[in-house]
Amino acid sequence: MIPSSTYRLQLGPDMTFEHVAEIADYLAALGVGAVYTSPVLAATPGSTHGYDVVDPTTASPVLGGEDARMRLVGELQELELGLVIDIVPNHMGIADPPANPWWWDVLANGRSSKYARYFDIDWDTGPVLVPVLGSDSVDDLSVEDGELRYHDHRFPIAPGTEGGTPQEVHERQHYRLVNWRRGNSELNYRRFFDITTLAAVRVEDPEVFEATHATVLRWISNLEVTGLRIDHPDGLANPGEYLRRLRAAAPSAWIVAEKILGPDEKLPSSWPVHGTTGYDALRLVCGVFVDPAGEQGFTELAGDQDLHAMEADRKRWAAEHLLRAEVRRIARLGVPEEAVLAFLPRFPVYRSYLADGVTENLPSGGIGERMMADPGGELTSRVEQTAAMVMAKGVEDTTFYRYNRFVALNEVGSDPGRFGVPVAEFHAKVAEAAETSMTTLSTHDTKRSEDVRARLAVLSELPGEFAGLVHRWTAKAGLSEPTLNLLAWQTIVGAWPISAERLQGYLEKASREAKIATSWTDRNEEFDAEVAAWPARVIAELGAEIEEFVSRVRGPGWSNSLGQKLVQLTMPGVPDVYQGTELWDYSLVDPDNRRPVDFGSRRDILAGIESAATPPPIDESGAAKLHVVSKALRLRWERPELFTGYAPVTATGGAAEHVIGFSRNGLVTLATRLPVGLGRSGGWRDTAVALDGPWTDVLTDRSYSGDVQVADVFFQYPVALLVRSGE
Fold this sequence. Notes:
Protein name: Malto-oligosyltrehalose synthase
Distance between the termini: 26 Å
Number of strands: 24
Mean pLDDT: 97
Low-confidence stretches: none
Shape: globular
CATH superfamily of one domain: Glycosidases
Organism: Kibdelosporangium persicum
Pfam families: Alpha-amylase (PF00128)
Number of helices: 24
């Protein structure tokens, strides 16, 4: 069942099944087609996100358990809303071993455990390494209640191995507790990226697939779940095979894969999914509102940064340091370790898919030749899996915090070296897009929200002025590390007004992910203290100047926000609205973007819009954005026949380049792009669009026909959603 749209909710203790049921009527009134949630299965105790599932057979007790889940299902069905859930086939949470019965059994029984093959463990290397110790010492171990303990960590004791000192008991187990620093280089189980508390699962084994998916598949067969978002398929040994098995087991479900495509990459045609989770659309929509003329100014501001050299260097570093354990596992298949280290960073995208016949992204060389000779072999799958990890850690999680020329472009699936998206490329790519694929502008994984990026896009029209401010502000209160300094100024302008606490949390994460002056594992206390003190200092010393500048870019930023939102909601695809973003939202990377959402105020604003005689003004309240979102979503729900086909709409006249538009089946979307340049050039003047017959703008209820002046169409909003009258 393909939904008309989705609304993403981050579940947790503050957003349980019961809470979702309570806001379901608001989401239905907004026009949403399906509620789309983060994982709903039992997760590690204390989890704030649910991606660390410990029991795939049980609805999360923290979210309310099975009874609350069924009450939510009933409420959604009453409102005719679908339910799309996020599932995590790649890994399970093992941070709290007693909470994960499969992992506990593996630790207790080793290779003889019935679950030994469920996890991707290299048993030939000896006991399972568990990197939890603070040092190389095991002096702090104890035995209590028949378990081995290390502070708050609990581990099983195999039958018959009791007796003696805790250290002696430890030596008899099927696992070894080791210094946490040994994980990246010596771990003998596959994990999610470099996170040792997320152990990879072998879903390529039919028995493991059945065990991990039976509950979710039952929900689908009972029509309690209508769609699935597949987390990180690139981590799987053979994503295509997995997705074909999933499709066979859930033929009616809407399935989208969180596949991060390069700007010129396509989804493998053999994957039986409806599309991606929308990063490809995000790149296009956000990019078309960026002024390419601003590139030179921002390049000069950032200094001499070679993006592709930086990516290659950071990928090599990730392979050598963060993922050395995975590299060594590949080497045990008969490939020199140094050859593996040299080969992995050469993948131009996340990975290849040789088992699916997709070979164009495979680097040349001896390892590639061996992989081509055995597309379904272990060497191929391990290299491909690890290549995805190298790309994610080297580029998305490191380079994107270092290459800070223009951070609005630093999102997964984007190439920050391409300064925006030309209008012609936008239309060509969108015309080819699948109607069933998800589109998005904000997710729980984006580096910054859609409205932050929309405001930053304004800066692309003001490169000289912004550079001057950065130089002046840096002289007064700059950070000592240049790349973080440039990131910080863009961030504070893009997210203003922002509290010192939120900015401090963001800069701590950004500085440690960049790994230049400090990192998560090797702290620089002096620099960390500088970063921690910076937000409060800057807000106190420069807050008035920042506010003055932001007051001048805020309006154009709102124009970009409304433009990119309407484009995303009406272009081909199934649009997703990330929680809370129906109003202005200036969130940064997680956990900032997972803060609780005030649904009460949104419900009130929607009711106010519906009862008002005129559309809401564009102001701080964000009501105008909610108005645009609700009108577009309701139109998708009520009149799906309008959302087929695609053709560019071009304007004529002096400001034609400032219109981005397209027509569908009885629907036309128009939006303003590059609003600062538009104002500088004298406004819309004689710019016009040709409409065939009578049309009504559903945002303002005004009617138009024939050759229409763009200034008339955009008299109230910088966007228009036109529907052919009489249809």
